[in-house]
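Hey, can you fold this one?
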Amino acid sequence: MKSVGVVVAPHIDQAMETARHLLAWLASHSIAPLIVPDAAAALQREDLSASIESMTNVDCAIVLGGDGSVLATARELAPCGVPLLAVDLGEVGFLSEVQPESLFLSLDKLTRDDFEIDERLMVGVAVIREGQEVSRSLALNDAVISRGTISRMLHLHCEINRRFVSDYPADGLIVSTPTGSTAYSLSAGGPILQPNLRALLITPICAHTLFTRPVVVSSEDSIRVSLRWSRGRAEEVRLTVDGQVNIQLYPGDEVILSAAEKPARLIRLCRHDFYERLRQKLSWGGER
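Sure. Predicted structure:
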């Protein structure tokens, strides 16, 4: 391992302190680091400053933060195949691999190539307006079409592979990956999917019907959702990607969602029991 990208959540004090020790460890092992600009400035190491987008040639990226930091980093680096090591410094840590107190033992394993890669499906999200693509994003968790501050229904038309599936009178619609099935979709009544499944999940939000249910489709399928009309103002309809990227939608817009060409690559230093993690992180299923 010759180079490492370091992504730090600057609002987390422990992340900044961990980054300081991490830079010292990397220097002692002759590993060249790049660090995101906010953290580089705070640590007075502007000579190492680099945006996440410019870390495309590093051997791996170490993410010091919560799941949100992992999501943001994956969107930038997954297309380049850069693997991520997530250090749990957030609230839930569902995507994290190591605790901060065991980081340097974990890095020793990393330098010995004693790890596995956990590939996670990502979804590509494109917005089509009047026949032209106006936006394209990637999501590791989900893409959500939802109303804004006006408490009125949306009418969403959904097709799979150009075949009609359903019209949804609802507050919105979530299309999630298996990784994202334990996020917003779970709160909206969607099922939990094992994270390595090749599938996408469509979950309506507060559908105004007695019979609408979530639908699991193949990752080979293309999902097309169009905004037919809204009883609220057009500017109140939003597409949100991974809870971080916001795009305004208008009547007639189409959102096309399909599996991304390349997955997110998460570094795993030991084998994990997914169902044990559900019990630990989400208090699912009670105690054994």
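The helical segments are 13-28, 37-42, 67-77, 103-111, 184-187, 274-282. Let me know if you want another pass with a different chain boundary.
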